[in-house]
Amino acid sequence: MLIQASAGFGMLYRLDLTKAAMELLSALIERQEPGGEVNASQAELGARVGLSRNSANTAMALLESRNLVLRPKDRKYRTYYLHPYIASYASQEELEEAIEDAAERIDAGELPEITAPLYETAPPKRQSQPLRAVRVAG
């Protein structure tokens, strides 16, 4: 059984992720190895949650832009890493060590922080259109 780090989950609502990005993140979390490594293609992950190739590509780009998903510098095919703050670990000790290491690496500029979009004002809420009666000709 894996132990999930939860430091990043408390701010997921602030990340302004699309439904597709949340679903893809869920697939990544499900497929990860201890420490957050995911060995699967983007197409496989997208298909797992019913996303088209284009939707999976857009969703992955959003996850990467928020630093939830990290790619190796060599952009190794089929390899993704979940940010240490949302990755799972094999033991409580491994979790604590990884979180401490991640904080040190963030301070040293070696690891990006999970980023939320910055708005001067909150984006407008989507307004639903009221239903209207339509007359039938005749």
Topology (SSEs and partners):
Layout: E1 3-4, H1 19-31, E2 37-39, H2 42-48, H3 53-65, E3 69-70, E4 79-82, E5 88-89, H4 92-107
Antiparallel strand pairs: 1-5, 2-4, 3-4
Helix pairs in contact: 1-3, 2-3
Please tell me about this protein's structure.
The protein has 138 residues and is an alpha+beta fold. Helix content is 36%, strand content 9%. The chain contains 4 helices and 5 strands. The strands form 2 sheets. It has a 3-stranded antiparallel beta sheet. Strands 1-5 form a two-stranded antiparallel sheet. The longest helix has 16 residues, at 92-107. It comes from Streptomyces nogalater. This is HTH marR-type domain-containing protein. Residues 115-138 are annotated as: Disordered.
**Strand-residue proportion:** 5-15%
Total beta strand runs? 5
Biggest sheet strand order reads: 2-4-3
Based on helices, strands and strand pairing, what is the structural class?
alpha+beta
Provide mean pLDDT, rounded: 85
Describe, in short, the structure shown.
This protein has helices spanning 19-31, 42-48, 53-65, 92-107; strands at residues 3-4, 37-39, 69-70, 79-82, 88-89. It has 138 residues and is of the alpha+beta class.
Spell out the key features of this protein.
138 residues, alpha+beta, 3-stranded antiparallel sheet, two-stranded antiparallel sheet, 5 strands, HTH marR-type domain-containing protein, WH_DNA-bd_sf, WH-like_DNA-bd_sf
